[in-house]
User: Fold this.
Amino acid sequence: MIPEQNVGGTDRLLRAVLAVVFTGLAANALRKRNYPALLVTAAGAIGFGINAVTCFCGLNEALGIDTTAE
Assistant:
């Protein structure tokens, strides 16, 4: 089942930028061997990246938010 899109426009762009930022933070945490920070930032990068690519956010769905009309 393919979920209905609920992320679009500026929201999607912001999530893509956040995915890139969190990826950089994860790389920095890995370089410093700060594994708890690596875990958190990598999870954020993956989450925001998936949201940006699929145009779907489970939290938006639960809250009834739809930004595709932007």
